From TrEMBL:
Record's keyword terms, sorted: Leucine-rich repeat, Phosphoprotein, Repeat, Signal, Ubl conjugation pathway
Statement: the UniProt record of this protein carries the keyword Signal: yes
Biased composition (Polar residues): 336-353
Position of the signal peptide: 1-22
Annotated InterPro entries: Leu_rpt_41, LRR_dom_sf
Region entry Disordered, spans: 263-283, 334-353
Coiled coil region boundaries: none
One CC-aspect GO term: nucleus
UniProt key word Acetylation: no
Protein name stated in the entry: Leucine-rich repeat-containing protein 41
Amino acid sequence: ALPGHLLRGLLPLLTIFRLERAEDAARRAGLSTQPIWRKLWNDVMKTRPPNSENITCWRKKFLETFFSNVLHGVLDVSSDWRLNDRHFSPLLHSSPHVSQLTLCNMLQGAVELTAQHNHKVLENLAGSLRILKFQHLLSSDQSVRHSLVLLLHRLIHHGSVSQVSMYSWPVPDTVLLVLILSMSAGFWRSGNALMYHGSPCGLCREEDKTQSQEQAERGCYTKREESDCENQKEEADACLNSVLSSPKCPLLQNQACEETSDQGPCDHTSIQGGSSPRCGSGQLSCHPKTRRWLKPVVGRKRRCLRRSRGPCADPEDLYDFVFTVAREDNSGLLGKTSTTEGENAENWTSSSPGSLCTGHTGCKKRGGPAGIFSLKTARRFRSVSTLELFSIPLTGETCRTLSNLLSSWVSLENLVLSYNGLDANISCILSGLRALSRHPDCRLRVLRVSEVFSHKPCLELVHCILSTVPQLHTLSVSFDLKNQLEGNRPEGNPICSEADIPESCLEQLEIRFPREPLQTTFLLPVLKASKSLQQLSLDSATLPCSQELGLLLKALKECTPNLKKLSFHDVNLAEHQKEVLLLLQDPVLQEITFSFCRLFESSTAEFLSEIINTVKRNSSLKSLKLPGNRLGNQRLVALADIFSEDSSSSLCQLDVSSNCIKPDGLLEFTKKLEGHIQQRGGQIPFTHLRLFQNWLDQDAETAQEALRRLRAVCSVVNDSWDSSQAFADYISVM
């Protein structure tokens, strides 16, 4: 109720607890608290956040980072009076603003968040958290894994997390990695056996209650059958709890629930070796003759739970309980060699979400729970839509596990596999994706694969991926180096057949060649199948002959009528001036990038003049990016003529980063640009200029004047770059 002028003076004097409570009042008074939160960031965090120019809400940015720092013990709330309020609970009051969270090292954060005193904090995160990241993880003990299970169950299965990312795990703990992957995919075997501080998960119980009511309405189960299955459910719950909390794991005896007859009963061997009640096969499904294709439904608990065939090999190994090897009545088991691909597809749709990995080279099948497992008995929960794995070595066993999960991960929309040492195991991943693509509810639209060494030529892999998952909208394939043993191709089945690529939905294609020749004849089938392609990026390719770039431009014109963005990075275009000018004339392209393409290495002033005149006549081009082409001062000043009075250009973005530009050259460019603006009555389309990594530190005063005048014309993005150190680094590696 305070007047606006009093509230304006009061806001900077409030603790963050009081400032939060005053947000609505400030908004009603037309006051912004953003400058106060920005000052709080500067005073408390004492760092410049990455991409600070893109931060739209400093309140959210501060509270989200504050939450993470307090959780990991790197921020003392008593260090600043604005943080120290007796009414303020740091984790509780900041948690509603947390949309992404990183857990690292020994997962201390997971243990803290699942502690009983932080129950409300976890509930808040279940509604606000969208991105969960794991970084620099280490092996963990049984109690920590238990906390992680509870956290993932609440935040993914019953929460709002849609993205799981894992970074920098040089020697991953297989148990922990598979646990995170499987729960991200929505699988958990035990159902509501998850115990939160002595009580089963209430949300699971609610789902079970709803499901059982629906089952009862359909008359699928008798009271006797429900009672029998409930007893067996409690036994399974007890087993999981003992795995999680007991130093010794009870043996899980051989599964005796064989569905050998539609009429015959099944015997379950109890955990302690005795017999449990017998139940008819009707308990497995409402329709015995068709139960083979009935999959577990979220919340269904009136099923006879199968028992594992083997004992827990290690009392510390939760993985052995989560994914035990179960005997199958068909070929749905991962990697069954005698099954054809067509039969595999049938089994996938009619039986279980098992992997379709058929044993390509690098995907050898081994026994044991780490290599082969069944998901038939797993309960399915909500799953994430984005999975990212960065710098995490994936063994053959882990790849088969991931392939198995991918085969039925219908909610997955984005998959990023970066520097995982896949090599030949990429065939196993593609096998799972092939199964997923055949699912009518498949949502996978983005796939990014990056590796150091290329196991296959880039274009061959692109061909295979598009043949496997034609639904993709974005595909990125990146390799740093050629495989030194390329002549020794591994034996076995190829990654994919030589069949033509089906018509795809591809809109964006990015290829980073490991210094491979760009062969348009191999790229042509990809372009022909991608009529909807709008963005194409070619990186680090070599041009085998002078005609190759011309052939590419012809293919693009014929096959991709909707192409809007074209990018070349680290491709030597010094001897292809004619093709460069043809691209700049294209009436459809809206963004062109020539990044580190040595455009002006052997060019004349006439070539630069032709570029300027071509751009001046092109009214469709909106963005021109020329980083790393040795423009220098003189060529930069000349580029200002693109906006002269006689220009019909619609260019609004110009990137001249890493071009040896000095302060005096930038100031001269600014003055010339101001002159053109004056001649055109103050109206030009130019709105954004990027100046990263130029030599502006050589004369700070002149640079500041140039930037000040430029910012009156357009948005300028630059950095404080030490050119002398960069030059020293360059000399040191010559």
